[in-house]
Amino acid sequence: MRFDDTTGAAHVTFSEALVTLLTNTRRLESLGIRLTSTLQQQLAAARRLHRHGLVLHQVADFYNELSTRILPCHKSMLLADAQAFESVLLAPRDGGGRAVTWDNAPAVEGYVRRLQAAVQQLTDRNRFCDAGGCTECILCIVCVDTHEESTLLAQAHPTQTYKHPPSRQLQLWHASMVERIASLLTTDLLRNKEAWAAGVKELRAMFASTELQGFGRAAQGAWRLHIDYQLYKALQVQYCQVCLCGESDCA
What we know:
Elements: E1 2-3, E2 10-11, H1 16-30, H2 37-64, H3 66-69, H4 79-90, H5 105-125, H6 138-141, H7 147-155, H8 170-185, H9 193-212, H10 221-250
Antiparallel strand pairs: 1-2
Helix pairs in contact: 1-2, 2-5, 4-5, 7-10, 8-9, 8-10
């Protein structure tokens, strides 16, 4: 594995000799040719290395796409887990602190296991959305400046944007909060003050739940600010409607 000096992206390359060995022996076996025991042993070792290489290739892709898979307002909350993963990736060492080389199969296998554990830890803390990536909902990308935009925003259906299985964690909380705020867009603030109060209370309870899962309040700063801004947009929609109703009554 090597890292691009300009972009910092990770790249995994396979030895041409290894690929040639696997390809040619596969052809020989398909022809029914028996391989010597020595060649079979070398082939088994080559297959193990190739398998580990494929895992490293997947880890490299995960590393290269990490910044786009985490919502900006969640990055501070996942910083420690991301740093733990990066420390393992950038320092391929065995249990004794020695550099891992391809001719040391147990060391390579141990390194791959540690990488997989680090990736799993980060993934568990920030479960990704379904295939296609996590798209920002309309609430998160539309700035409500006019009544026309407010009307379009109020008519949006948030469940068409987010699709989360029940086991998803951090981004599930985010989606639930956004969907809760979206429901307030069509909730009359004057006639249903209790519903608004309940919605805000529910948002606070969600933040408290994430704290219990290990996401400290200080780390939640950017996320809380982001959600507050979405709530402000929903309030602005309601105030616009109140003003328009008032103008109609005056007319």
